[in-house]
Input
Amino acid sequence: MIRLFAFVLLMLTGPALADDVQYRNSRFGTTAVLPADFRASPAPTNGDGRSFSHPVLRGTVSVYGAHNIAGDRLADYRDYLTGIYLDSGQSITYQAGGNSWFVLSGWDGDEIYYLRAEGCTGGPVHHIYFSFPGSEKPRWEPIIERYARKLDGPCQ
Output
């Protein structure tokens, strides 16, 4: 009976979170740790990053680097992205941040997005972006909680 309960619990909570793999973007040095059962899509020709999907869960995780085109400060970049999201009709329902990171999360139609970005003054910005149907939120929450903060990258 206990084994059956454990199996059902595992099936309801989503993918196993035990095995991790690290992705590193060679262009910007952006790194992120992801569950081992996520599969990478083909790399883009510009080398900015990569998207990953799960064989069962609907949604994607994208890890990428970019230049801060809004200025030197990360706060300027956050404000720039906020404007783009709101102008395109997306909502922002959660924001957080510090000197070297910020989070924007909300709705894009029926999809939930969660973006964590990290960067330093004058350097590149490193991103991890989760996007999934709102109905999948209970299955994605533990993944975001575990992996969003495993984003890293150099300042120069």
User: Anything to note?
Assistant: The helical segments are 2-13, 74-87, 137-147. DSSP finds three helices and nine strands in the chain. The CA atoms of residues 81 and 141 lie 23 Å apart.
